[in-house]
Design goal:
The protein is mostly helical and 91 residues long. The protein contains 3 helices and no strands. Helix 1 packs across helix 2 (36-63). It starts with 18 loop residues before the first helix and ends with a helix.
Length: 91
């Protein structure tokens, strides 16, 4: 049984990518010592994580779009700074 990166059974799939992207992926997998499947799974996991972070960021921006007073604006600026640092630290 093939096991995926999350220790559950892996799902086989076929996908098409442009030849140049495929070649770049093969080179990256070789450099990193990963299988093609490992590289694609890791890349998809990272991409989905970034999408989720973007959704959270967009929700926060919407919720705090227009601060009511200067003090609230300063608190919001600090929150965005800490959030940006946290995201950068986890990339």
């Amino acid at each position: 049984m093939v096991v995926g990166i999350d220790k559950r059974p892996a799902v086989k799939t076929a996908l098409s990518v442009p030849a140049e992207l495929f070649d770049q992926g093969e080179a990256a997998a070789n450099e990193l010592g990963l299988s093609r499947s490992g590289l694609y799974a890791s890349a998809l996991k990272d991409y989905l994580k970034r999408l989720e972070q973007e959704k959270i960021r967009a929700s926060l921006e919407e919720a705090y779009a227009e601060p009511d007073d200067p003090e609230e604006e300063a608190v919001l600026a600090g929150m965005f700074t800490r959030y940006a640092e946290a995201v950068r630290d986890h990339e």
